[in-house]
């Protein structure tokens, strides 16, 4: 009601646990989008959200460059309709043409990533967690977001096929981070073989448990200097 010229807003949780009793919801996001139409950047933690509220923000704040929505809890759908949050995030990338940074959350299917691949042509940074149905989602991102520089993926069902679909683009990126996905050692080795100027690191977050084929964390980046020399024992460079 009062901050009509607000351009940057960060709403952080008092308690970051999934089951925290926070009071922030889609009601607040709708109020912000209706009253602060000059908004350029928002980081918004909440306990529940609706597609309607996100769609409203996409129409009311078309100048958004950063949209980071964190619905606390895994795979949470639109709490009114029970539908995935696909249409909300689709509206953000479709209507906010200057968007350069996007963080997704909630229940998202491959459809959401089809929207991101088709309309996220300006995206440079993308963060994804607990989302998608298959490798097709990652393929949409890597084949559609031509300006993407930083990609962070956590706990998604993406494997070698999705990773290898981005071979044409990895040299243009700053880094790729994938943890808790379905990658294999063979898939990561193939990336390292085909792209020798990429540093491909495999990180074991539980050093006491030796990994055989599965990959815990993949961290991949381009470097003029080549691989780093200060590698701890739980990091393997391919």
Q: Calculate the terminal CA-CA distance, rounded to whole Å.
A: 55 Å
CATH level 4 superfamily:
Ribonuclease Inhibitor
- Quickly name the level 1 CATH class: Alpha Beta
Placed side by side, the strands forming the largest sheet appear as: 1-2-3-4-5-6-7-9-8-10
Helix/strand/pairing category = alpha/beta
Uncertain runs are: none
- CATH architectural type: Alpha-Beta Horseshoe
Secondary-structure element order, N to C: EHEHEHEHEHEHEHEEE
Would you mind describing this structure in some detail?
This protein is of the alpha/beta class. It is globular and about 55 Å long. The chain contains 7 helices and 10 strands. The protein has a single domain, classed as Ribonuclease Inhibitor (Leucine-rich repeat, LRR (right-handed beta-alpha superhelix), Alpha-Beta Horseshoe), CATH 3.80.10. Strands 1-2-3-4-5-6-7-9-8-10 form a 10-stranded mixed beta sheet, covered by helices on one side. The model has no long low-confidence stretch (mean pLDDT 93). Strand 4, helix 4 and strand 5 form a beta-alpha-beta unit. The protein starts with 7 loop residues before the first strand and ends with a strand. Helix 1 packs parallel to helix 2, helix 2 packs parallel to helix 3 and helix 4 packs parallel to helix 5.
